[in-house]
Amino acid sequence: NQDASVDACTYETLEQRFALAVFYYATNGDNWADQTFWLSSTPECSWRFVSCDGVDQLVTKLDLESNSLEGTLASEIRVLNDLEELLLNTNELQGTVFPEFQQLEVLKVLDLEENEFIGDPWPAVSPLTALTALRISRNNFTGQIPEAVGNFTHLVDLWVASNEFAGQVPTTLGNLESLQNLLLYDNQLTGNLPSELGNCDLVVFLAYDNEFSGSIPEEIYSNSNMIVLRLDDNELTGTIDTQIRNLVELEDLRLSRNDMAGKIPSEIESLTKLRKYSAVEKFLLASI
């Protein structure tokens, strides 16, 4: 589709056009659901799914969600060092998250959900401390959530569910005072839930289908804006603390299929917005 009258080498943004072209070929662009204007003589800021700033015409956003991308990511993406949002979720991308990701220093939103990525992503993404959203659920990632996750002090969304992460959740999550949505479900995470999660501002906390043990820290009930709390399908013990009365916005509470026991505290009756609720069978027996 290249206009023969245009010398591509004269483009002021030649380097980013090259990076986008490499990205296109690496992800089988000819088979994308929509590739409007890509690789044409049209300025790359007019290519479908590409957004740029209004001054220097540098790429700030790529949004190719659900666009039939295949293959792997090319390391040339590091050239797009003004990129603030990279949304590649719900495709069929494979391979690893390469170290060059570290060079996307101003990246705020990284969404790789629902692909087929493998390997340990944390060495590549941990330096991206400007992130407000890290969404990498539903892949085949491995490794442990590192203590360095506590450096994501702007983070609102941390979605790492449905992978193969193992080990304990670091206490440094307590540094993330802006964290609202924490999705850990369907991994192989073990150990106690960090009491430091009480420092966050959690609205949705999904940690079901893991191997968490110990009791639910009463500090978790400090998240007074929480709407959904799911800890079912773990190995939790202990009881429900009376501090649950602080979760006045709670609509969905699920604690079934754990090893918890004791009476359900009467304070749970103050949760007037509760719509979905499942407790451990031992609770029910103890309350009768």
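[next item in queue]
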Amino acid sequence: CGWSSIPQNADLYSVAQMGQDLAELVCHLKESWKLETFHLLGHSLGGAIGYEFLKRQIEVEDARREGCAEGSNNDNNDDNKMPRCLSFILSNASTNFQQSSSEQMRLFQEFQLNHFQTKRVPSSSKQQKKKQVRNLDIREEFFRTHICRTPAKPAELESALSRLGKKWSANEYTAVPLAHEATSCGVDATKTKTPGNTFPPVLILRGQYDFVTEPCTSGWKDIFASVQTHGQSDVKEVVLRDCAHYPHFEQPGMYSSEIVKFCSTLESCDT
């Protein structure tokens, strides 16, 4: 993570473009490895990328059904069909990145206030220096509380964060529901999505102490309900105890167990 180039065109790293990149990867896996079905997991930004990928596939299939997309006359040709996504796992992913950034700032301000309220005001010069050290350390304490609750920062995470870019094209991202059915190469606001062509079952994971809080993830339920999935049972949410934003580092056993349990149930139903 972080080793890619820095192109002048920021759109090359937009959420929409990365969703298209994912589509090309899935097509490559189908052609080269005969991929037929898969589970899709997106962590943080990856959740937004995964959502845009699935949303775009539904839009393309709708257009083909209406005879609007290139190659629509070949709908019965399996070579033109995307491998089927059995499930979508949204791990620590927000529907609105500005909202999750605001939540992180709010939590930090509360953390900072509570930190100083529990400390006595130093009077001597030596104590003043200790206070300055605490001011420097508070961000590390916040990191270990609301970002990654491991005793030491994982080497992979530290490496990635050390190369974090200064500009992030996803800052303005907000997930938009697929609420209407495409028809005649446009959108008919009087029609909702048909149940036969919609999102796969969804698992929402978030950490108990994550800065991606419940208000940041609750929008996913509204989004999937708006396209009339098979019912509320198709959207499951699990709050991971004693985890923040990186549960695969913090509680890998618990994290993988929830994912395997969810995917295994769906695979048994698919056979």
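[queue empty]
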